[in-house]
């Protein structure tokens, strides 16, 4: 079984994190390759030709999802160990790195001088709310580290939802234990020295 190319970590640099479109594209591609197509990935693990074709299988329409053939335990474990968990780990590593970048000082912020100028102008402004009740409004520009922190926070929430959904399908089709995806991923991390 080959690893998906989406599990390959990009070069982690602050520039990668601050390019929010590139960061989101990497996460989106990784999710679409593994998690969004989990049913297809699991179906690919089934080898129907092992027993040969049974003509009676087409006599009755199979509408019950529980009637699906169980996937071989070794194939499931191989998929989880070689494709699913490495993909999740790579995305976790990227999000953790970018969270660190978001909480670090940003001396190369291109909007730093502009924000400082706007802030100084705002402090000097005289506000007469009786004449203009909206004159007190001031919307400071968000630092790119703040924007990145918000993006990472949102993407971590998305990861939680996607992993829970994916893990539900994996446990259903692979007859896995009912351990949570967090426990399963942590067990994999420990066994792979991560």
Measure the end-to-end span. 21 Å
Residues in helices, as a percent range: 55-70%
The 3D shape can be described as elongated
Q: Provide the residue-averaged pLDDT.
A: 79
> Using only CA atoms, what is the Rg?
25 Å
> What oligomeric arrangement do these chains adopt?
single chain
Spans with pLDDT under 50 lasting ≥5 residues? 1-6
Q: What summary fits the major beta sheet?
A: none
Helix/strand structural class: mainly alpha
Family: Belongs to the MIX23 family.
Protein name: Caffeine-induced death protein Cid2
Entry summary:
By secondary structure, the protein is mainly alpha-helical. 57% of the residues lie in helices and 0% in strands.
How would you characterize this protein structure?
The protein has 194 residues and is mainly alpha-helical. The chain has a domain at 10-36 and 73-105 and 146-191. The protein has seven helices and no strands. It has helices at residues 14-18, 20-33, 38-43, 73-103, 112-124, 144-174, 181-191. Helix 2 packs parallel to helix 6 (144-174) and helix 4 (73-103) runs antiparallel to helix 6 (144-174).
